[in-house]
Description:
With about 375 residues, the protein is an all-beta fold. It has 2 domains: about 1-185, no CATH class; about 190-375, no CATH class.
Amino acid sequence: MGLLNKIYNGRVVLMTTVGLSFSGVYADSLLAPLVIADSNYETYFSFKVPAGRNTVGRLNSNTIHYTWIKKGTSLGALKKLNAPCSIVNNKGRVSANDMVFQNSRGIVATPAGLHNDQSQPNGYNASNYVGMVVISDLANTLPAESLITNEGGMSGFAYIVNITTGNIQDYKLLNNHRSLADGDFGKGFTSKKSVDLSWMGGGVSVAGYTGVSAKTDWFAVVTGFDMAQDGGLFSSLYDASVTFSQNTRTVNGVIDATQDSPQLANLGYGTKGVMNNDEGFTSGNISIKVNCMGSFDRAEIMDAQLLADTRFGGWVRLSISPQDGATGVSVHRATGALVYRADTFTTPYSQTPVVTIQPETSGHLLSGKNHPNRPF
């Protein structure tokens, strides 16, 4: 029985390799932070995988590992902020230096003119699916920090297709670059320590056009050190969490001494509150906890006065305090969060609403010289 010693932030975690079908430590992973597959949506992936840089064209057994982190079976599950996610693992087969085209159910999407694709990916098809997935290259036995040329070998994109309206949302799959183990998304820009939430007003005028309305929501994914663990050997739940607030950042309840307060003291405000679109400040308390992943809007983080004063737009600076999970054998260690902003536009010029999704900016709370989201 081999033991892999992983050292993170001064902590040593012992992991047994019994029951796993890989040899050595593999480090290259991709995170797809939002996957939807139901009667209205389908999610597609397009990614390249070195697969250990084995002989080109040879189909390797169990080359890629999927960790399906499921929040629920409908979009409404994202509103259950205190609920953990379940975990299902499976494996697929690809040849070296392969370009994989598939949907989240594991079906190969073969573009016109592309023949004899040897990819045999896997997916989640037990039910409808709303959640995220970590895809790892099992054949890559060189940790990303060991060789510059080995860093970030996997890359690609995801596409969420609304089957009914034809609208498509695409985003880049996130590589766990500069990490020593698969599923470790505790470093770099994927693990934010702070965030500036910003929003548009309920009714806006865009480029002189009237009748345009916009609603802002946020989507958060809790990042961790071990997001690709086998459910048969480790926990079957991912229950790491984060709390967004204007308190100084904490890690498992202990104050992070490297972080400044998010209460806008540098702007002359020594208290909690939000800014509106006209540089007006309203004091008030904002705090919300997200387990695993979830979405929320202004009404879920603000009282009536804050909502009224920022109805035409505004922003607030928040710290992100991680809390480790404690389910099953393996403790899921939280590091921060990945935060997206989603704006839904309704216009008289389109029969269906238009949704845009972009990452939110950092809150710039680190007191030292390094930016909190810099991938160092």
